[in-house]
């Protein structure tokens, strides 16, 4: 605990909540995401779709190939690429077709340790892999581009506010008698403006989060993709109207995760637990509007995977409905069930699909529901 207290004291004794969240997740030594090993995945604190099952990357590969059939070689940009599960899964699934289907791969990952881990994991990649710490470092390209981002936006630091009469107060984290404490402060202008922009008036005492970084980051990402782009963003979230509805989330959406257990107090065990807040999909829609991209759909993960061909992928591996019930079939079906689970990931995780240029028609055709 003392490292965070030292940091806050060094910054004047108090920081706004987004500054606190940035420290506890991304401090170069003590941050949750700064360790040498990923803290998510089957052995970790929480599952993401790519770490839940290899079938996720297989279906993603199927989608890439179907797009490639209409565009030619693609540039794949994986943002928040983590331990590189998606990139290595796609390259493995493509096998000898990789250098044909992919013009190149860009892996954008904030954590230096994860970038190092990926360099080892992908040392023998049959295509050019370029690493970047930030979307701003990406070079533009005229290649048709597919962007993939799984649980990027819900891992961004958020400001936290409490509704007061016709306005909000902003929450800050201070230090008192060697303990972290909440403080209420007048809101910064950009925080107040966030709720005005989304037409949200919070009830007295209602807590909510403002993800100030999501829209600018998504705008930069879409712009870096160029004129022929398909963007696939996987995250937990709602549109503003639902996210800030006091009947659904009067306490906000900020959660902590440790060993698959959900918690609500972000001041406990700083740097040792994941902190995450739901995405406001309207932020990413506004970004698309600025960059002249079109929305193809916002679907629960299960529906997206069905549209992208998960049933056909299982058939192609001899694991469809007719398959013998041996150990391989049972294991594959269990993994697929985890991704499609209507009580879990399959409905809680959403996929926002946006496209630009000729990718609009292509995305609509490859993601139409199978007849
Ligand atoms: C919840 S993990 C998701 C990892 C992976 N995409 C998955 O689904 O398994 C979030 C990752 O986002 C990375 N990250 C956070 N902000 C980022 C940013 N602005 N640019 C690139 N990566 C970022 C973190 O370092 C972390 O590896």
UniProtKB/TrEMBL annotation:
Keyword terms, alphabetized: Methyltransferase, Transferase
Lineage: Bacteria, Pseudomonadati, Acidobacteriota, Thermoanaerobaculia, Thermoanaerobaculales
The species this protein was found in: Candidatus Sulfomarinibacter kjeldsenii
GO molecular function: protein-arginine omega-N symmetric methyltransferase activity
The protein, known as: SAM-dependent methyltransferase
PANTHER family named in the record: PROTEIN ARGININE METHYLTRANSFERASE NDUFAF7, MITOCHONDRIAL (PTHR12049:SF7)
Pfam entry (one): Methyltransf_28
Single GO BP term: methylation
């Amino acid at each position: 605990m003392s490292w965070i207290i030292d940091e806050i004291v060094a910054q004047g004794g108090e920081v706004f909540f987004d500054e606190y969240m940035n420290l506890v997740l991304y401090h170069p030594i003590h941050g949750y995401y700064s360790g040498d090993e990923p803290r998510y995945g089957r052995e970790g604190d929480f599952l993401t779709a790519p770490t839940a099952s290899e079938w996720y990357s297989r279906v993603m590969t199927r989608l890439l190939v179907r797009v490639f059939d209409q565009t030619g070689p693609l540039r794949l940009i994986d943002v928040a690429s983590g331990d590189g599960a998606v990139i290595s899964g796609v390259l493995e699934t493509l096998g000898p077709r990789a250098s044909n289907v992919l013009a190149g791969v860009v892996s954008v990952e904030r954590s230096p340790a994860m970038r190092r881990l990926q360099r080892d994991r992908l040392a023998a990649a049959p295509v050019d892999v370029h690493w970047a710490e930030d979307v701003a470092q990406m070079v533009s390209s005229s290649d048709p581009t597919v962007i993939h981002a799984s649980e990027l936006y819900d891992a961004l630091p958020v400001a936290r506010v409490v509704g007061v009469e016709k306005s909000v107060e902003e929450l800050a984290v201070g230090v008192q008698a060697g303990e972290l404490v909440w403080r209420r402060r007048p809101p910064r202008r950009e925080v107040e403006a966030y709720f005005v922009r989304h037409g949200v008036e919070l009830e007295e005492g209602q807590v909510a989060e403002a993800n100030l970084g999501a829209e600018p980051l998504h705008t930069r990402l879409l712009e870096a993709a160029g004129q022929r782009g398909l963007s696939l963003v996987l995250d937990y979230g709602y549109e503003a109207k639902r996210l800030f509805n006091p009947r659904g989330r009067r306490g906000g959406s900020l959660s902590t995760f440790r060993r698959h257990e959900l918690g609500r107090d972000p001041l406990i065990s700083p740097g040792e637990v994941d902190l995450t807040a739901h995405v406001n999909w309207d932020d990413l829609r506004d970004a698309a509007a600025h960059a002249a991209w079109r929305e193809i759909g916002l679907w629960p993960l299960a529906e997206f995977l069905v549209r992208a061909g998960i049933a056909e992928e299982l058939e192609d591996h001899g694991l469809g409905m007719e398959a013998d019930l041996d150990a391989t079939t049972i294991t594959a079906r269990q993994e697929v069930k985890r991704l499609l689970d209507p009580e879990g990931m399959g409905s809680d995780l959403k996929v926002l699909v946006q496209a630009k240029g000729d990718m609009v028609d292509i995305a609509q055709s490859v993601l139409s529901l199978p007849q």
